[in-house]
Each structure stands twice: as structure tokens, then as C-alpha cells.
Amino acid sequence: xxxxxxxxxxxxxxxxxxxxxxxxxxxxxxxxxxxxxxxxxxxxxxxxxxxxxxxxxxxxxxxxxxxxxxxxxxxxxxxxxxxxxxxxxxxxxxxxxxxxxxxxxxxxxxxxxxxxxxxxxxxxxxxxxxxxxxxxxxxxxxxxxxxxxxxxxxxxxxxxxxx
Length: 163
Hints:
Layout: H1 2-7, E1 10-15, H2 22-30, E2 35-38, H3 42-54, E3 58-64, H4 65-68, H5 72-82, E4 86-91, H6 104-116, E5 120-124, H7 130-144, E6 147-152, H8 154-157
Parallel strand pairs: 1-2, 1-3, 3-4, 4-6, 5-6
Helix pairs in contact: 3-5
């Protein structure tokens, strides 16, 4: 996924720390050509993506499915009304092997919510397809100037174990 972001000329990546994105976050933070921004809420990433685009840069927003609920208003209003490209990489929770019942509702609702807001959805279930999937999503977002979410399967990232 990191290589796809680099090849897509993404220069800003915002994120709320998430174990499912930890490897990607570490790669981005180590790359001096990409500005990595830790967020206090996923909603801030929508504004950051708007500002990046207005400033001539491409951005990506990393979040967990439970965080989508925190930015519904910003997606439905700012992102849709202003029409800037938005690339979101979303690790899904509440799916395969989930042991935390608090994660299940948003995991179930996220695809439908995003679809209803006009977001193009691309599902990533196979690690071998990660580069091609993120590259295609980036092209779709930035060349088509649309909003795109890559939903990264919990089966791919692994279920968290609570003891």
C-alpha cells in the first residue's frame, strides 16, 4: 500500500493511530517526502484532505471502520459539496473473528453508509492485491476527482485478540 501511495504522488497522509495501519503509518512517517499527520479525530482528516488538494497536493486518510462514524458530516457536506478528491484507506472491524462487540455495528454499517454518501467502494481481501487495489483507488480518486474508500478486510489485517 505504501508503494502505491508513493507512486500516486501522495504527499500528505493523515491518520488516527490504528494497529491495522501500523506498518503503513510507520513507512509513511519514515518518508521525508510525505507529511504524516496524526489526528485526534478522523473528521479532521477530511478538512486536511481538502486543504491538501487546494494547496496542490494529494493526500490519503487512514482510519478504522469505527472512525467513519466520526466523520459522516464532513464527508456528506464538505467532501461532497466541494467535490475534491478523497482517498480513504479503512481497516474494517466487526467482521471476521471480531471479539469486541462494540466494533460490530459500525463494521456492519460502514459500507452502506459510504455507498449512500456516493463514495466509490473498493474491497481489499487479498494481500497480494494491495498494491494494485490502492493504485487503482488513487487513480480513481485523483484523476476522476471523486471520493473513494478502500475497505481493508479484517481477515486480511487479522482480528485483535483480547485476553
